[in-house]
Structure formats: structure tokens, C-alpha cells
Amino acid sequence: MTIGLEHFLVLGALLFGVGLYVALAKRNAIGVLMGVELMLNAVNLTLVAFGRFVESEVALSTSVFVVFIIAVAAAEIAVGLALAMVVYRNRDTINVDRVNLLKW
Amino acid sequence: MSAWLLAAWYDLRDLSGISREITEWVASWGPEWLASAVSGAIGAIGILAVIGPTLMILIWTERKVIARLQVRYGPNRVGPRGLLQPVADAVKLILKEELVPRAADKWLFFLPPVLVFIPALLVWGVLPFGPHMQVADLNVGVLFLLAVSGTNVLAVFIAGWASNNKYALFGAMRVIAMTISYEIAMVLALLTVVFLTGTMSINGIVLWQQQEDLILIVLLPMTALTFLLGATAELNRTPMDIAEAESEIVAGYHTEYSGMRFGLFYAVELANTLVMSAFMATFFLGGWWLWGLDAWVPSWIILLVKTSLVYFVFIWLRGTLPRLRIDQLMTFCWKLLVPAGLLFVAIAAVERTLLLEYAWDRTIALPVMAVINAAVTVAVIGAYARVTGAGAHRAPAGPRMARGRLGGLRAARQLAQAPSGSD
Amino acid sequence: MDGVGHHLAFWSLAVITVGAALGILVSRNLIHAMVMLILSFIGVAGLYLLLSAEFIAVVQILVYVGAISVLMLFAILLTPRAARDNAETAMRYPGLILMGLVIAATVFVALETDWGAVREEPVAESARIIGQSLINEFVLPFEIAAVLLTAALVGAVALARRDDEDIDAHEQSLTLEGREDSGGSS
Questions:
Q1: pLDDT at C125 over 70
Q2: Phi and psi angles of residue C171, each rounded to the nearest 5 degrees, phi first
Q3: For A37, which of C68, C95, C152 is closest by C-beta distance?
Q4: Do B153 and C3 touch (CB under 8 A)?
Q5: CA distance A99 to B341
Q6: pLDDT value at position B1?
Q7: From CA B340, how far away is CA B330, in angstroms rounded?
Q8: pLDDT (tens digit per residue) in B193-234
Q9: Fewest CB atoms within 10 A around its CB: which of A6, B93, B271, C28?
Q10: Cα separation of C11 and C4, whole Å?
Q11: Would an 8 Å CB–CB cutoff place C34 in contact with chain B?
């Protein structure tokens, strides 16, 4: 059996699922951000696999997409961590279920 | 200089012939994957064969040269002229007890001495020792160098964290703060080189210097300086060794490491310095090429000589300059190296456009550009010295890093000014 | 891709990547989870190499391993009194169910769809092609990404920065706290 597109897609799906769980269920804000990063990585992996195995009009446009995703992920993580810092400074915690002033 | 001699496996000027012979022999009877595995293994063994003995010599050289710079004798008891001192050091370190603090994070504590070795060995893979002597000529070699040498900081952080010691953690935080600042300066420096040469392959950069018949340090002095200082910061060497400043935080991130674990950190520091010297020599001093001499002398010997030169500069810096404070280091990086790096990226872009699009005559344009770049370098450094008052005698208005809970000068001053208590 | 090397590389990298991701899921310690995340990033970089995307692989190491994880470690250090565990909220079981559903649906789609023509040989010189398309076809997104990064930089600094008065008041309180006779903070 040759290693083909499906292998990478299934791997990406597994990574995405784990990342989704981590992002949804973890209590620590930094843990949630880890989950988000994992999901982005899964998507990147899938895109690169498509770029490798599927013929397209513009060569490697998927890789360009991945570069943009990485740039946006870097921006997102910087702002996300800054938010976590602000929450920590005001509430002395970064547990997402204790940041509930606007909830009720 | 006939062609058959150049291609022969026993030609010392191109050791890759040996690897090629063995790989072809394996491929003649074995499967394809075995041949590629064998060729990879040969490269790895070759690199280890270079690093291992060189490290032993370097320990002795560094101590001896620093001693001479500081008007001492240095090691001179073990063996002739102290040459066996590294062996004695290694035996001592191996025999010492390896302490593990009770409060340490057991799993993470064992990882860092091994982890730091991985980037230190990986970067050798893209270093060209000769026109064909390179384990992997990646077309993104420069990025690979930056990426892999940047991961070093993670091992250091884990070491500082797992020790569960406040000095170790201070050291780790200082390393991170300094490395991510100086990495930007280094990226800008290498970006300038890539702009000008038009390739990210490291061998391609050497070939460009060969083709243009000039070494890049002449064309880009500021960039070479930035790379040298960025490498010094990344390697945690004096004058930028605030991460392990023994007068402030014991030994920084490896405070709790003893015996051979400390020995591994020490060896990696030297190996990293060696590889950074080699890359400095490759990017800015022409690598394995030296105005036609490489046709007669083995190219790897030329590279080793240049590497030793740069290494000597590193030792020289270490023996001469005192350690800087962290706010001085940050100021230096963000106010001089990064803006100057941006300026030189722009200059390199303009120069490349002039050379390529407008097809200026290289024999005239390149010397003129070298003069202009040197003038800009002098102007930038002069302006920085003028603006910051040349440093040493002018203390900052307030402490910049040590603020808030950590205390710092301002807190100390307030404490002194407040009226004394009832007692 | 059917050589022994490809099989070995793919399966070991897949085990490393998914195993490390599961390590984040089960780890009880935030720093351990972080180390697992870094391992997972490195595994994904290896998979990129396997897919002949050297540029993306190196950028992955440079940005994720070299910058993003260092930033996250820094954030963990700068929140010293927050809990360092990696526990779950009440969303644990809904999260597990959703994870199972998403994985099942994605795997089903991945295996059932006909993805069309398969390219046998990878595109060579990926870095050059990516660079050229970044300044030709995708020049507008490229500029927007630059603006976005600048905005994120400014935003992060604006969020994380404290005013000087804050610091002064903070230090004042610390100074007073440290003295026995002045009795308590401001």
C-alpha cells in the first residue's frame, strides 16, 4: 500500500479532533490556545497534502494559503496571550470558566 | 588538474568522493532505501568525526587564549602544555555525582542536556565544507539554520523550569527575552544576505561570492557585525551571558545540573560557538572559497581556518568585554541592530535591483556599493553613539526590566527615601 | 510514495504527532502539555518534509517551535499565581462526543471522496514558487497580512502594557507593604 492523500487527510482529521476537544474542554486559557494551534496545524497539514497530491491550476497555491494561515496564527496567538495577561492582571486567574462577569 | 583526478574518491580536496563510492557500491547490490540510509549515516559520522575531536581541542584553546588575554598561563599541568586538560575535565565530570533536586520536575529535568544537542548537530547538515561536501543542500538552507538554531532556547527554558530553582528560572527568562530580540536582528542580517545573493541555499551564497570574486563582509560590514553580535547573544557568551551570569544568578539555567549533565551543556555551548563561527565564515568570509586557492588546498581546510579566525574573535570578545546589563542589551538590540538591519535590507534591495534590472557594471558598481555601505555603517554606529551618549557613563533614567514586583532601582530608591520606622 | 523510507517516516511521524496531541489531552500539567504541543509541531514539520514542502516545514519550525511556543511559555511564566494544571471544564463529555463526531465525519469524507488526478512527482523549488506567487497572484492578501500583523503587534502591546502611573502605584504599595510599621498596602 502506498502512502497517499487519504493517509494525510485522516491524520489531519485526528489532529483536528484532538485540537477541538482541547480548545473546548480545557480550563486554562493557555490550554485553550494550544487547542486552537493544534487545529490550525491540522488544517495546514491537510492543505499541504492537497498541494502535494492534487493537480491545480496555480502551482502550490495551497502552500501560499498555509503561509497566510501561519501568519494569522502568529497574530492570533500574540493577541490571545495579551488578552490572557490582561485577564490575569485583573482577576488573578486565567481559568476560562471563572471569567464569567458578563455571563448572567 | 585533469578531470579524472578531481572525480577520484581518494582526492583529499573533495571528501564527498568517498561517500559517493560507498553509496554507489551499496546501490549496486542493495535496495534504494538502504543506499540513501547509508549515505545519510556517512554524513552523520563524518560530522561527528569533525565535532568530537574539535571540541576537545577547543576547550583547551579557549581556556589558553583567554588566559593569555588576561595575562595568565592557563592550564599547564596535565600533559604537555596542559593539552590533556580537557580529558581530565571530562573524567572529573563523569565521575561526579549527578544530583537531582527533590523539587525538580523529574521527567523534564532529564530532557534538556539531550535536547540541546539536537539543534547543535542538525545545523551542521547544511554547512558546505566544499563544493560538494554538504549533507543536504536545502534550497531553504538559511531559513533552516535560523529555525533550528532558534529551537535551542526551548531546551534552555525546560532546563530552567524543571530545576524548580528561582535562579534557574531567572536564567531561562533572560535567555528567552534576549534570544527572541536578537533573533530578529539575525533574521534581518541574513535577509540582507539573501536579498543580495538571491538564493537561500547556503552553498549558493558561497558560489555567489566566488562568482562575484568578493567576500560579503566587504560589501555588508554592518550585517556581518549584526550577525556576529546576534550569534554572541544566541550562544550566551560573554559579554552577553546574562543568562548564566555567575555574579547575579549563580549559573542561570544550569544551576542545578551537575556532573556530565553540566558537561553536556558546556560541550553544546562550545559546539554551537564552533558552528556559528563556521556559518559566519561561510556567509561573510567566503566559506570554502578563497580566490582560487581552493583548487590547490582542500576546501574544508580553508573553511576550518576561516572558522578558527572567527572563533578567535569570539574568544577575544569574551576575554575583553565585561558583561552587560539586560536593559543595555535590549536597548542595543532594539535601538541599533534592528533599525540598522531594516535599513540595510532596504539598501540591499536597491543594490540588487541596480545590479540585476539595470545591469550596472559589476566591476565598478560593487566597489562603489561597498564604500557606500561602509559609510552608512559608520554613520549609523556614530549616530547611535551620539544619541545614547556612547553608553557606559550614562545610566538609564530608570530601570527597564527590573520593575514592579522584582524591585529594581526605583523601589530601592523609594525605600531609602521613605522615613525610617518607629524603631 | 511507496518506498520503505516513506512508510517508515510517515508512520513514525504520524505516531509522534497524534501521540503528542493525545498527550496534551491527558496531561495534568500545563508545562508538560506545552512540551507535548512542541513535539506535535515538530512532527507536523516532519510530515511537511515528507510532502516535499521544505519551505513550509522550515517556516513551521521557525514560527511555531521558535516563536509561538516560546511566547506561550512566556505567558505561562507571566501568570505565576494562576493554576498550572491542565484540567477540563464541565464541557468535557460534550467535547469528547463532538470530537468523535468531527473525526468520524472528516474521516468518512476523506475516504469516500474521489479526489481526482494524483500528482506523482512533487513540485520542485517550492520556496521560489511560493515567493513568486506571493508577489504576483496573492499580492493583495500579502499586504493585508502585513497590516494584520502590524495591527496584532500594536494591539498586543496596547493590551499587555501597563501605564507608568500603574507601575508607580504598584511599587508604592509594595514599598509600603515591605515595611512593618506602615501597616498594610495602599
A1: no
A2: -65, -35
A3: C68
A4: no
A5: 42
A6: 42
A7: 15
A8: 988 888 888 888 888 888 888 888 888 888 898 999 888 888
A9: C28
A10: 11
A11: no
Asked whether residue C113 is domain-assigned, the answer is no
Distance from CA of C88 to the nearest CA of B (A): 22
**Contacts by residues B79-85 (CB-CB < 8 Å, ≥ 24 positions apart):** B85/B59, B85/B60
| pLDDT at B172 exceeding the cut of 50 | yes
Q: How much is the pTM?
A: 0.83
Rounded-to-integer distance, Cα B104 and Cα B107, Å: 9
Which among A22, A66, A70 has the least Cβ separation from residue C24?
Answer: A22
Q: Look up residue C122 and give its three cell numbers.
A: 512533487
Nearest-Cα residue of chain C relative to residue A26: C88
Cβ pair C56:A63 closer than 8 A:
yes
The grid coordinates listed for B211 are: 562568482
Residue C175's pLDDT is what?
57
Using a CB–CB cutoff of 8 Å, tell me whether B158 touches chain C. Answer: yes
* pLDDT value for B10: 61
* CB within 8 Å of A101: residues ≥ 6 apart: none
SS3 at position C8:
helix
CB contact under 8 A, C6 and A96: no
pLDDT tens per residue, range C62-91: 888 888 888 888 888 877 777 677 777 777
Domain count, chain C: 1
Environment class of B9 (CB within 10 Å of its CB; exposed 0-12, middle 13-18, buried 19+): middle
pLDDT at res. C15: 93
Check CB contact under 8 Å for C56 and A74: no
pLDDT-based confidence at residue B317 (cuts at 50, 70, 90)? confident
Q: Identify residue B83 by its one-letter amino acid code.
A: L
Give the total residue count for chain A. Answer: 104
Subunit contact A52:C18, Cβ cutoff 8 A: no
What residue numbers bound the domain in which C176 lies? 4-87+124-185
Q: How far apart are CA B219 and CA B375, in angstroms?
A: 11
Task: Assess whether chains A and C touch, using the rule of 3 or more C-beta pairs within 8 angstroms.
Answer: yes
At C26, which CATH number? 1.20.120.1200
With a CB-CB cutoff of 8 Å, which residues 37-66 of chain C face chain A?
Answer: 37, 40-41, 44, 47-48, 51-53, 55-56, 59-60, 63-64
